[in-house]
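Re-run with default settings, no changes from the original entry. Doing this only to confirm the output is reproducible before filing.
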Amino acid sequence: MASPRGYCAGVERAVDTVEKALDLYGPPVYVRKQIVHNLHVVRDLEARGAVFVDEETEVPEGATVVFSAHGVAPSVHANAAARQLNTIDATCPLVTKVHNEAKRFAGQGLTIFLIGHAGHEEVVGTMGEAPDAIVLVQTVEDVALLPEPRSEQLAYLTQTTLSVDETTDIIAALQARFPTIVGPPKDDICYATTNRQAAVKSLAREVDLVLVIGSANSSNSQRRVDVTRDLGVSAHLIDDESQILDSWLDGVETVGITSGASAPEWLVERVVDWFRERGVEEVAEHHLIEENVHFALPRGVREAQGTAT
């Protein structure tokens, strides 16, 4: 089992935020989009009274709504204010950092190349901060196809959950084509993405197969599959143990397990139990990096908790 794996500080904060909001205000508490990209987490919160909607305009006027960890555009905040919603912003602080960088670069008149995946909620939210200044770049090939910018005042930013290696290649291509381009003071890819990709790379060198526990819409989980396959090791993304195919295990002696940043540890335990029921006796941690990052709950929740007590 890769270590670190599973919940990052931003996901833990977001899930805790919805749970605390349900305790404070009672159901229903509305959540715009999936609070984190994991089907099991969403179902558990729905069972407790959370109602997931696609847009803030679907939330009844005056109700409580939580914005997901992936962040939202300023227009979403404006719509929520117009509907007099009690908003709780569970955006990961590391995503907020990218939003602030986008506003700063745009305010300085720079054209921003945002490295990310079209349609991903984090990308939609970041582009909403400066829609006229941001151009999306998804691949190294995209760089050669970019139109000539109006000036040499250029910057790049990245989605926080990308493949570290792929992003490095895209940044290098941007720097080669646009020598004056500048980046953020600190890498945008979050610590958890970097650490978990490093952990699974280390793990992959010692196993025959890697199972990544996470939902299909989880970018960081998908990237973990990609980096493993890039090393020539078989890898599959699974929501839970029910999706494991016996054929994957043909000729396999050692299986590596990791989990996406949105996947709770009890899903890992279920997968391990699945293997134990089939005779596996040795289960070990493959430890690489120690993590001790923690983010405080959103101010509105902390203040409401203080009032409630």
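DSSP finds eleven helices and twelve strands in the chain. The two ends are 40 Å apart (CA to CA).
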